[in-house]
């Protein structure tokens, strides 16, 4: 089973490759841009599945997905994202994507999802696609995704990245990715400041 990953976040990309190749019978290639992915699709033997990061430069929303789907007579392409909404996931599936995979998916579920999609099925996590999108009443909470709020709660409780990753059943690189994003959103430069801002806003 051959898989191509295109994601501009190097640490997360390498982690995904490690997960998928580790005794799962998968041959995985990885690139950092949409253009590089298109070159590999044209030059390499056929891939059973291509995973594209939704927020990667060059994607232009779902335009990059559409272009990749029709490349070289047709490809099986799925979106991966840490921030895309359920609406975007639905649009991707309607456009013909093999699936939608949140980056917060536990490693075992990620491997099963990739295998499922590579075999010709369409995948999207049921809880993600059916969850009611509640509108947060807290102004600070409104800026953050549900997972970013989970990570921020762990920060306010003084937990390490490793502890937060274990509690949420996600990887440490994923925690770091969320941390970087939420720091930017709440205008914090470090963990202590983020925790103070959250407490002052009455978030937890």
From TrEMBL:
One BP term from GO: phosphorelay signal transduction system
Keywords from the named record: DNA-binding, Phosphoprotein
Domain HTH luxR-type: 137-202
Statement: the UniProt record of this protein carries the keyword Phosphoprotein: yes
Record-level Gene Ontology MF annotations: DNA binding
Modified residues (4-aspartylphosphate): 53
PROSITE patterns: HTH_LUXR_2 (PS50043), RESPONSE_REGULATORY (PS50110)
Response regulatory domain ranges (all copies): 2-118
Transmembrane segments: none
InterPro entries: CheY-like_superfamily, EvgA-like, NreC/VraR/RcsB-like_REC, Sig_transdc_resp-reg_C-effctor, Sig_transdc_resp-reg_receiver, Tscrpt_reg_LuxR_C, WH-like_DNA-bd_sf
Protein name (database record): DNA-binding NarL/FixJ family response regulator
